[in-house]
Amino acid sequence: QVQLVESGGGEVQAGGSLRLSCTVSRSIFSFSTMGWYRQAPGNQREMVAVINSSGRTNYADSVKGRFTISRDNAKNTVYLQMNSLKPEDTAVYYCNGRTQYNYWGQGTQVTVSS
After folding, report:
1. Distance CA 111, CA 14 (A)
2. Across all residues in the chain, what is the average pLDDT?
3. How far apart are CA 91 and CA 84, in angstroms?
4. Nearest 5°: phi and psi at 75?
5. Residue 78 · residue 28 · CB < 8 Å
6. pLDDT recorded at residue 1
7. 70 falls in which pLDDT band (50, 70, 90)?
8. Are the C-beta atoms of 32 and 98 separated by less than 8 Å?
9. pLDDT of residue 71
10. pLDDT tens-digit series, residues 54-64
11. CA triple 32-34-35, angle to 5 deg
């Protein structure tokens, strides 16, 4: 069974930075895309950033220029570097791996205080 384990969440003041990590229990080459999604209370889960096996990235407009997704294939890990954080970035962040199926991590809380 594939496991995705997120880490790196926490509480930070507005303008601060956090780096999320997602470690996968098998080679991330086997996934067509890896990505980060988030869900704030009362909102639907939304895409934050995705990266494909070729390294091509895509970002939500709300995080462009502030967040960077990257992958370390040797470590089977995907990262989300989050800079210039805003209170509206507060959410549970989920790691996603996509093949013919969707795999999700358990989520990590990010709280940005003003």
Report:
1. 9
2. 96
3. 15
4. -100, 0
5. yes
6. 87
7. very high
8. yes
9. 95
10. 999 999 999 99
11. 140
Contact 5, 106 (CB under 8 A): yes
Measured in Å, how far apart are the chain's first and last C-alpha atoms? 40
Amino acid at 5: V
**Residue 95 has which token pair?**
């790691």
DSSP 98: E
Nearest 5 degrees, angle CA 74-CA 79-CA 80?
Answer: 165
The residue type found at 7 is S
- Give whole-number Cα distances, 26 to 73, 77, 93, 94, 106, in Å: 10, 10, 21, 18, 17
* DSSP string of 59-84, one letter each residue: E-TTTTTTEEEEEEGGGTEEEEEE-S
Length of the chain: 114
pLDDT tens digits, residue range 10-35? 999 999 999 999 999 999 988 999 99
What φ, ψ does residue 97 adopt, rounded to 5°? -130, 130
